[in-house]
Amino acid sequence: MKKLIIIGGYGNGTVVQSTVEDINEEKQQWELLGFLNDNEKEPINGYPVLGPIDKETVQNYLKDSNVYFFYSLISVKLNHKFLFKLIELEIPKNRFATLIHPTAVVSKYAKIGYGVCIQPFVSVGPNTSIGNFIQIFAQSLIGHGAKLDDYSYVANNACIGADVHLKEGAYLGTNATTLEYVTLGKWSITGIGAVVLKNVDDYAKVVGSPARVIGSTK
Ligand SMILES: CC(C)(COP(=O)(O)OP(=O)(O)OC[C@H]1O[C@@H](n2cnc3c(N)ncnc32)[C@H](O)[C@@H]1OP(=O)(O)O)[C@@H](O)C(=O)NCCC(=O)NCCS
């Protein structure tokens, strides 16, 4: 069985933990060793905190070739300004786990990278391309031909139209919907419930229906 360490904790990290447990219930695949976390010392949902999020701790675990990581610290608050945390750990890409909840429906014609977590009841259509370090939360729909670049983020119940492109770090909020073919710019944020009818610029923050710019994430 492969071993897994989740980098993060309460919040997205525990969502990933739940998915791992559901995967294991179907077929034992992962031994969840615990979390790396800078703030918590006590166990998180019964799993130990193995140490802080630093290179030394990570490199020690990497010596065991059966250990994989999941980086759960990408969120609306922890965006590009915190990415250095991931980069400075120097974990090879192929040592990040990709975790797909047993209830998700993922087309066999979808390409999926490293460090991706696909949550319950998500649908990923054919000819989609899902990059690395991406979380797709419960009940979202990814239309056929959509392209999600690294670090992009799909909150629960979001609906991505066909052939939509989420550029690096683009964040799509809960219940947001996009028209087909639009592009969400690099590290842009689309708020909850937005209806996106046209391209969103890099670093723009948009809300509403139709979505309008209210600020910047820079
Ligand atoms: C878009 C978002 C990031 C804006 O956050 P913010 O920069 O802190 O903006 P504020 O809360 O200061 O709001 C600024 C204005 O936009 C409005 N606004 C914010 N989010 C909105 C939304 N989703 N839809 C419509 N209007 C919204 C506010 O009412 C406020 O209007 P006002 O100036 O007339 O009072 C945030 O509201 C959001 O939707 N985050 C996504 C959350 C999510 O999906 N989480 C995943 C599940 S946990």
TrEMBL record:
It comes from the Bacteria. SUPFAM superfamilies: Trimeric LpxA-like enzymes. Residues 3-64 form the PglD N-terminal domain. Pfam families: PglD_N (PF17836). InterPro entries: AcTrfase_PglD-like, PglD_N, Trans_hexapeptide_repeat, Trimer_LpxA-like_sf. Belongs to the transferase hexapeptide repeat family. This is PglD N-terminal domain-containing protein. It comes from Maribacter luteus.
